[in-house]
Write a structure and sequence with these properties.
Layout: H1 17-56, E1 58-71, E2 76-78, H2 80-83, E3 96-106, H3 107-115, E4 120-123, H4 124-128, H5 133-158, E5 164-166, E6 170-175, H6 186-189, E7 195-199, E8 202-203, H7 207-214, E9 222-228, E10 235-241, E11 243-245, E12 248-253, E13 256-258, E14 263-265, E15 270-272, H8 283-293, E16 305-307, E17 310-311, E18 317-318, H9 323-332, E19 337-341, H10 346-356, E20 361-365, H11 368-377
Parallel strand pairs: 3-16, 16-19, 19-20
Antiparallel strand pairs: 1-3, 1-4, 2-15, 5-14, 6-7, 6-13, 7-8, 7-9, 9-10, 11-12, 17-18
Helix pairs in contact: 5-8, 9-10
């Protein structure tokens, strides 16, 4: 008989009873596990759906978060006209300029932002003030354009090149609102982007004209401003009640912060690609980078340096926003020194130093001379000569 073909007969006894009981026990255990698993699986799916929805739903909150710290030299372009007048010395150690990121948040972003100490979550009013998002973007890009021109003016003037500056029209950039503004307050009568052409019939061509005329009034006086609204050509008269300067009650203000509409006359232009970055806070970095490119040597002495701060035509360095977040970006970029405006508040500088820790040195500077001295202390070459080719 071939054993491989043996077939078991149907008379084989069934498995013992205890085996079937074990199987019944196993099925019951699996059922209990399934009873627990189904609710947990449902909760997990609901949580995933909630997170997805929270990441898609926009809320009325905006973030101020760390941005980037990148070399200015990569954004500089000298055309043939410029190179006919000066020699370019490519930066040996590129100086960094720094940005902060700001955008509308999703519900999920807002929750994460409130947890993250490096992100500031702002309401609409905190983020935009009295401007609309479109107006703030426009003003931001305009101020960046102005910052580039002022940086060129300051750098070229330092190097002895022939430069001059002209003041432009009086344009409203931001409104100053008191706690209890009256119906005729500027913050209720004017809008960002408005151009003021006259006060009580007296023509105003530049900011100097407005300052001179307003000095003859006292807080509480009601004047008639001739205004051209943004993107219009029609002149409209508006009644506005003047206010006292919150920091100097003896000084009379209209109640707005003017846009920087100055224009500079330069012997040549240097293109600075800002890649749709708004705001004037890169002024100091642009100025230092231009000075480095137009003089021989290494202005920063081989040290990885970042800089932030506005720059004025008198070479003073002005305060900027989001210093905490910008310090985070500078530290992440591996910089060793961060030049910041000395006019920042003590709390802001203390916060920046806390973020910087021991690996990043924070140096406050009040003007261009202090910034150059700080770089010289790091081993920088300083400004050895202008580069005009006679």
């Amino acid at each position: 008989m071939d054993d491989d073909n043996i077939v078991m007969s149907s008379s084989v006894l069934p498995p013992p009873v205890f085996v079937r009981k074990d199987k019944q026990f196993t099925d019951s255990s699996r059922a209990r596990h399934l009873w627990w698993a189904l609710p947990l699986l449902t909760i997990a799916w609901l949580a995933i759906v909630a997170i997805l929805c929270a990441s898609l739903v926009r809320v009325q909150y905006w973030e101020v978060a760390p941005g980037t710290a990148s070399p200015v030299s990569n954004r500089l372009s000298f055309d043939s006209q410029a190179l006919n007048q000066v020699t370019r010395y490519p930066a040996e150690t590129p100086l960094l300029f720094v940005t902060a990121f700001g955008g509308q948040m999703s519900a999920l972003d807002a929750v994460i932002g409130w947890i993250d100490s490096d992100v500031a979550v702002q309401t609409y009013k905190e983020h935009f003030g009295t401007s609309t998002p479109t107006e703030q973007r426009r003003l931001g890009f305009e101020s960046m354009t102005s910052a580039k021109q002022i940086a060129e003016f300051v750098a070229f003037n330092r190097l002895g090149l022939d430069v001059s500056m002209k003041y432009g029209k009086v344009v409203v950039e931001q409104l100053v609102c008191l706690d209890l503004p009256t119906r005729l307050s500027a913050c209720k009568q004017l809008n960002p982007g408005d151009t003021i052409t006259a006060l009580d019939g007296e023509a105003i061509a530049t900011l100097d004209d407005l300052i001179r005329i307003v000095a003859n009034y006292v807080p509480g006086d009601v004047v008639t401003l001739s205004v051209i609204a943004h993107q219009t050509s029609e002149v409209v008269d508006k009644r506005v009640q003047l206010i006292a300067d919150p920091d100097d009650p003896q000084r009379t203000l209209v109640g707005f912060i003017p846009a920087d509409t100055r224009t500079v006359d330069l012997p040549f232009e240097v293109d600075i690609d800002t890649n749709r970055i708004g705001g004037p806070s890169a002024g100091l970095a642009f100025t230092l980078a231009l000075l480095d490119e137009l003089t021989p040597g290494d202005l920063v002495g081989g040290t990885k340096v970042a800089a932030t701060g506005t720059i004025s035509d008198d070479e003073s360095v002005g305060a900027i926003g989001a210093l905490h977040q910008k310090t985070v970006a500078v530290k992440a970029a591996g910089a060793k020194v961060f030049l910041v405006p000395a006019s920042q508040s003590e709390e802001e500088i203390a916060s920046a130093r806390q973020v910087a820790g021991s690996s990043l040195r924070i140096i406050p500077v009040a003007n261009l001379t202090e910034a150059l001295n700080a770089l010289a202390d790091l081993g920088g070459s300083g400004l050895t000569n202008a580069t005009i080719q006679l």
